[in-house]
């Protein structure tokens, strides 16, 4: 009968306690088992594949379920810690009877964050990855209140301790849903006009950064957020923009203050209507945030602002036209900015990027790139696919321009809007008269970095903080 082990050496089909006593012989796929007490409040829901293997090992291990006296006897149970088992290549951690993670010894050694292996201030690796033996094995593995304790062999035994929450959020075999899943996104259509996200200029500018945190969380959640009570000046708007991060300078300048005078070679500097688009499709790295503040509009009408949630429209496209969704996720589109004599931008690689961009690991939609005016010659499509591609962008355009998707709002001096240019498309209606708009681009990395730092400050509480940052921050 197996026992819950504080630590065990798993060799072949035998599980031995660290004192070498054989405590059980198991089939490989039924490593240890039994009702493992939860060691902390984890939301360790398995990915589908992992839960399949977990249910296989759970049913196989049902026969090995320890008796209540075994449980009482187990130190792990008393300390309500995960249980661990070890084989020649990996450490297995049992979070509960259905949830196990497996970490390779070489991976664990490479991720030691003691003062010798990891620079506590710069958060950079010091251990020489390439001097770690490929067949490295631990001398001992033990669950402790602090985390998984591993003693490595070597001229000097080396002790590494890995916090349980860090191991859970970095579990790769299987990937576990992060203990702290990222904020849910709220997808919206035209009805957002009933209650659009907004914060006040005063709270955003407060040096305690709580208002800034609130603003960026709303942008992360909705893809845009208004700021009310902004002094109607370019100076105040520039200062507001820089609360997010340094301004991204482009061929249009740094902070822009523009009107319909073709001062720059782009239709934004005309009175023409602009259909729903994302900016910078001609850049390899389109800006993350675009901030707009209408300073004045005199002697004319029109110039209303259009916002469309690209993630919302993509979700409808995926449900109603899956083959179109797939085509727009696969076919690269080239774009250019060629209106300024001293500049001609196309992305790198020059084949461009698909309209719908997805995360390489999660496969989730992470970026919409669409500007039909800036689109260059269609090249990434075969002759057989060309008609299908035009049909695809017609379907996409129809959904983008549907009354259900479009949120029209007339901006006015005093109200700025920050837009996530990787998710929300913007545009405007044609206008006449004198219209003055100002704003700025902020890079996606600067925006995400600021949000991460604010979440680090206001939302998470991690161990071993050195100079304001935990060496176990989930992003490093
Ligand atoms: C924002 N500002 C007025 C400076 C320039 C606008 C450039 C718009 C360009 N067609 C694009 O889609 O990126
Ligand atoms: O003038 C406007 O309201 C928006 C212009 C625009 O779409 C842009 O600058 O990207």
TrEMBL record:
- Give the pathway listed in the UniProt entry for this protein: Amine and polyamine biosynthesis; carnitine biosynthesis
Q: Name one GO cellular component term.
A: mitochondrion
Q: Name one Pfam family in it.
A: GBBH-like_N
Gene Ontology MF annotations:
iron ion binding; trimethyllysine dioxygenase activity
InterPro entries cross-referenced by the UniProt entry: AlphaKG_dependent_hydroxylases, GBBH-like_N, GBBH-like_N_sf, TauD-like_sf, TauD/TfdA-like, Trimethyllysine_dOase
Q: Which reaction does it catalyse?
A: N(6),N(6),N(6)-trimethyl-L-lysine + 2-oxoglutarate + O2 = (3S)-3-hydroxy-N(6),N(6),N(6)-trimethyl-L-lysine + succinate + CO2
Instruction: Give residue ranges for domain TauD/TfdA-like.
Output: 198-441
Q: Which SUPFAM superfamilies match?
A: Clavaminate synthase-like (SSF51197)
Q: Which UniProt keywords apply?
A: Carnitine biosynthesis, Dioxygenase, Iron, Metal-binding, Oxidoreductase
Q: Give a yes or no for keyword rRNA processing in this entry.
A: no
Q: Which residues form the Gamma-butyrobetaine hydroxylase-like N-terminal domain?
A: 87-167
Q: Which cofactor does it need?
A: L-ascorbate; Fe(2+)
Q: Which GO terms describe its biological process?
A: carnitine biosynthetic process
Q: What is its EC number?
A: 1.14.11.8
Q: Which Gene3D superfamilies is this protein grouped with?
A: 3.30.2020.30, Clavaminate synthase-like
Listed PANTHER family: GAMMA-BUTYROBETAINE HYDROXYLASE-RELATED, TRIMETHYLLYSINE DIOXYGENASE, MITOCHONDRIAL
> What is its biological role?
Converts trimethyllysine (TML) into hydroxytrimethyllysine (HTML).
**Family statement:** Belongs to the gamma-BBH/TMLD family.
Under which name does UniProt file this protein? trimethyllysine dioxygenase
Which species does this protein come from?
Neolentinus lepideus HHB14362 ss-1
């Amino acid at each position: 009968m197996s026992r819950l082990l504080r630590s065990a050496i798993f060799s072949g089909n035998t599980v031995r306690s660290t004192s070498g006593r054989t405590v059980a012989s198991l089939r490989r796929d039924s490593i240890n088992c039994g009702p493992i007490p939860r060691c902390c409040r984890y939301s360790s829901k398995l990915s589908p594949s992992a839960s399949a293997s977990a249910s296989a090992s759970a049913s196989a291990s049902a026969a090995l379920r320890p008796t209540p006296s075994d449980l009482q006897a187990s130190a792990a149970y008393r300390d309500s810690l995960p249980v661990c088992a070890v084989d020649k290549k990996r450490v297995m951690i049992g979070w509960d009877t259905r949830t196990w993670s497996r970490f390779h010894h070489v991976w664990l050694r490479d991720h030691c964050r003691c003062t010798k292996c990891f620079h506590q201030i710069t958060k950079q690796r010091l251990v020489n990855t390439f001097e770690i033996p490929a067949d490295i094995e631990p001398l001992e593995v033990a669950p402790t209140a602090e985390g998984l304790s591993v003693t490595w062999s070597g001229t000097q035994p080396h002790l590494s301790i890995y916090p349980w929450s860090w191991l859970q959020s970095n579990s790769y075999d299987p990937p576990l849903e992060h203990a702290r899943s990222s904020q849910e996104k709220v997808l919206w259509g035209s009805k957002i006009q009933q209650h659009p996200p907004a914060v006040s200029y005063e709270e955003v500018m407060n040096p305690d950064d709580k208002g800034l945190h609130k603003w960026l969380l709303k942008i992360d959640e909705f893809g845009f957020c208004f700021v009310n009570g902004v002094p109607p000046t370019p100076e105040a708007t520039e200062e507001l923009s820089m609360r997010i991060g340094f301004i991204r300078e482009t061929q249009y300048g740094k902070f822009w203050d523009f009107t319909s005078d073709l001062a720059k070679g782009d239709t934004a500097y005309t009175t023409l209507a602009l259909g729903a688009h994302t900016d910078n499709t001609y850049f390899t790295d389109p800006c993350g945030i675009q901030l707009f503040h209408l300073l004045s509009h005199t002697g004319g009408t029109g110039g209303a602002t259009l916002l469309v949630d690209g993630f919302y429209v993509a979700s409808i496209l995926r449900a109603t036209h899956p083959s179109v969704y797939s085509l727009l996720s696969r076919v690269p589109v080239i774009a250019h900015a060629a209106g300024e004599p001293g500049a001609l931008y196309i992305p790198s690689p020059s084949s461009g990027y698909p309209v719908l961009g997805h995360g390489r690991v999660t496969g989730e939609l992470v970026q919409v790139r669409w500007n039909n005016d800036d689109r260059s010659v269609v090249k990434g499509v075969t002759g057989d696919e060309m008609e299908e591609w035009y049909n695809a962008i017609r379907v996409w355009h129809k959904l983008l321009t549907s009354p259900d998707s479009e949120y029209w709002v007339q901006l006015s001096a005093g109200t700025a809007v920050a837009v996530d240019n990787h998710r929300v498309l913007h545009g405007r209606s044609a206008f006449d008269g004198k219209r003055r708009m100002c704003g700025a681009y902020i890079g996606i990395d600067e925006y995400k970095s600021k949000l991460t730092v604010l979440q680090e400050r206001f939302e998470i509480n991690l161990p071993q903080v050195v100079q304001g940052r935990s060496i176990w921050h989930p992003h490093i």
